[in-house]
Design a protein that fits this description.
The chain has ten helices and nine strands. By secondary structure, the protein is of the alpha+beta class. The chain has one domain: DD-peptidase/beta-lactamase superfamily (Beta-lactamase), CATH 3.40.710.10. The strands form three sheets. It has a five-stranded antiparallel β-sheet with strand order 2-1-9-8-7, with helices on both faces. Strands 3-6 form a two-stranded antiparallel ribbon.
Amino acid sequence: MRFIALFLSILAFAAQPSVAASSPSLLNLEQQLSSLVAGKSADVGIAALDLNTGEIVSIKGNTPFPMASTVKVAIAALYLAQVDNGRRSLDDTINGQSARSLMARMLIHSDNHATDILLADLGGPNAVHDWLEANGVKGLRVDRTIAQLLSARRDLWDRRDSSTPVAMVDLLKRIYKAELIKPESRNYLLDLMARCETGKNRMKAMLPYGTPVEHKTGTLDGLTDDVGFITLPDGRRVAVAIFTRGGANRPQTIAETARAIYDGFKSVFAWPFGTPALTSQ
């Protein structure tokens, strides 16, 4: 019996996701971020990925956190993928409104009703989840509509509608690299994310004035998230996911974390061949 219990425990350990390891060149930044979050009362998950070099840093990178409205990036990506293959158009009318208008309201103003209209048209949460799974995006779950999520009893450790920080930056990377949607759709999505009106006290708050940021926020009682892209002075983009739950001063924690990421990536890497362009892979 003891052998069986040991064997089962080994299997359970092996089934756990591997620990997200930071790149060796970013270990100093990892230490800075660890020190930063150690002084916070919130539970913080972080991942940041240089989209040109592939260097990554993470804190609790494989720990699931509620996505809240950051899931809207995935919903938008699926709709745009279907625009790319001719199944839908941004000029389609859904419930008396154009898909283009619904998309803008969803990403710029985080309109929950507009989101659920688009989500229903796509086939519901399962359609988004299955599409992500089919395209190799792991560690990100879409289980409920926004209305269902908001009406449910709040549990910030619920695995439903969650993402790990690493899974979120992987989704952002695949969007940026035009692996999930075509370059034209990618550029359209990034333009909407650049116009995001929510969370001005989060990722953007402490970055140097004029730093380009394309992002999407997420908020629930006790939860504050921000995910997206930060462009460095040399033109490199970094995909960033910052999830915070519980504790106090969560927006401030996100702002400080984003600034540390900006400074850390800027100081460690220099792009030697001029400003990189958006890839069209």
